[in-house]
Amino acid sequence: QVQLQESGPGLVKPSQTLSLTCAVSGGSMTTNYDYWTWIRQPPGKGLEWIGYIAPSGNTYYSPSLKSRTSISRDTSKYQFNLHLSSVTPEDTAVYYCARFNSHYGLDYWGKGTLVTVTL
Questions:
Q1: Of 58, 56, 87, 88, residue with least CA distance to 71
Q2: Which of 5, 33, 60, 61 has its CA 20 to 30 A from that of 40?
Q3: pLDDT for 93
Q4: How far is CA 21 from CA 24, 69, 103, 114, in A?
Q5: Residue 27: burial class (beta carbons within 10 Å; 0-12, 13-18, 19+)
Q6: Residue 34 — very low, low, confident or very high, per pLDDT cuts 50/70/90?
Q7: Ordered DSSP codes for 32-47
Q8: Does residue 68 sit in helix, strand or coil?
């Protein structure tokens, strides 16, 4: 059973960089069909896809966030990371890490972590 767990600061100041880590357990991070994904949900709004890192190591980002987003991975540590720069209060959201499997879709999710952007 794959498990995902987000970690990182719950408060970030405007203009700073939001950095989160997702720890992966119970499965491999190096298959050819798993895409390690970040998704967020602002308060009172729907889910927003942020991006993923593919098995090849290539990354793909939402066009609206692309200029501020970086996703990386460290397979030796079984983790992948999100960095979102120049944050504003509009980036306040619950951030989820998830696994997108090319056969089954988004099949495993972390519980989510609330990040609030505020002075």
A1: 58
A2: 33
A3: 98
A4: 10, 14, 25, 13
A5: middle
A6: very high
A7: SSEEEEEEEE-TTS--
A8: helix
